[in-house]
Design goal:
Blueprint (H helix, E strand, L loop, with lengths): L1 H12 L7 E6 L3 H14 L3 E6 L2 H9 L5 E4 L6 E4 L5 H18 L4 E4 L12 H23 L5 H26 L7 H26 L3 H11 L1 H4 L11 H7 L3 H14 L5 H36 L11 H13 L3
Parallel strand pairs: 1-2, 1-3, 4-5
Antiparallel strand pairs: 3-4
Helix pairs in contact: 5-6, 5-7, 5-8, 6-7, 7-8, 7-11, 7-12, 11-12
Length: about 325
């Protein structure tokens, strides 16, 4: 666990660097194209630079999270448009790229945030810590169910998983809403996504315990901490990480949860269906793993019954022999 956590967290978070970070240059004409190409040539693989005709089109791309920032060309008032709710770290990275550009023009850079986080979560990282709380509540419950419920039928453990995931998701919704005010609206939807996320983890864990036994905790740590937190996009979006974690971000359940909540709270549900689909897919995987585990446990139980030795029974004496034995005992001969 120590080695895995160190490799995962330090590999994902210690040296964040732009990796094909998508940005746009706003303007028309050859000057815009030359400027965009110059930025691309200097940045290399760190930036993916495109041009858009209008500021409105750039804002639409920001709100659909297709770009991380847009630089509006102007000789007197250049502007950088960002959406910090999508990634505060991403907005900071883009600002570091374009601030020197405006500086060479001898003018200050105006930064406009078109999708800020709520004042209760100024960095937008509260959703990442909500993910951690839900994850710990879920995978730690798997360990408890494995230890205390190992002797219970799998269907009972599955029902317990449903109940535990409901409790975990209610706690998550309470933390996101009335406690820390991360979600100012759509709290019921936040709860529903929290339940999908938690239930997926619990069912995968309950099913894996049939096969892995005491190694289940390590497997859950690998799946839902080492690989999950680092690829979720909660601190750094994939454009600020290496290709491994960026690839995981496309389909891992933590990324589906964080990006889905962002979409719900800040981006008018843009892309929400895909994120919910990711969570549903992980829940289906959990149900399938649990179903397979149930079939295996039933097969083991039948095999155990067949292999149990049949106790040998002493033959009952014939009635005549029994009467003769009783007479001998009464006469004292035996």
């Amino acid at each position: 666990m120590c080695l895995g956590m160190g490799l995962a967290y330090m590999g994902a978070f210690v040296t964040p660097e732009p990796n094909h970070l998508p940005v746009a240059v706003v303007g028309t004409g050859p000057e815009t194209k030359v400027f965009a190409q110059t930025v691309k040539d200097k940045a290399g693989d760190q930036l993916d630079v495109r041009t858009v005709a209008s500021r409105t089109a750039a804002v639409d791309l920001l709100k659909s999270r297709d770009i991380t920032g847009a630089y509006v060309l102007s000789a007197k008032t250049p502007e950088l448009v960002v959406a910090t709710a999508a990634s505060d770290m991403g907005a900071t990275a883009v600002e570091k790229v374009f601030t020197p550009v405006a500086g060479r023009q001898g003018v200050p850079l105006k930064v406009t945030d078109v999708a800020p986080s709520v004042s209760d979560d100024p960095t937008g990282q509260g959703l990442f810590f909500l993910l951690i709380a839900l994850s710990i509540g879920s995978y730690a419950s798997v360990a408890a169910l494995g230890a205390a419920g190992a002797g219970l039928p799998l269907r009972i453990r599955a029902l317990l998983a449903v109940g535990v995931s409901a409790v975990v998701s209610v706690i998550g919704a309470a933390l996101a809403g009335p406690v820390f005010h991360l979600a100012h609206h759509d709290l019921a939807s936040v709860w529903a996504m929290s339940w999908l996320y938690s239930a997926g983890i619990l069912f995968i864990g309950v099913g894996l315990h049939t096969f892995l036994k005491r190694w289940t905790t390590l497997a859950m740590m690998v799946l839902f901490v080492m690989l999950n937190f680092t690829s979720s996009g909660g601190l750094f979006r994939p454009e600020l990480q290496n290709g491994f974690f960026g690839t995981l971000h496309a389909f891992w359940n933590g990324a589906g949860f964080v990006e889905g909540i962002r979409s719900l709270l800040y981006f008018d549900r843009d892309g929400l269906s895909g994120n919910v689909g990711t969570l549903v897919a992980w829940l289906v995987i959990g149900l399938l793993v649990t179903a397979v585990a149930g079939a295996v446990e039933r097969a083991r139980a039948r095999r155990t019954v067949r292999e149990e030795p049949v106790p040998e029974l002493e033959p009952e004496p014939e009635p005549e022999m029994a009467e003769a034995a009783e007479e001998l005992e009464e006469s004292g001969a035996v």
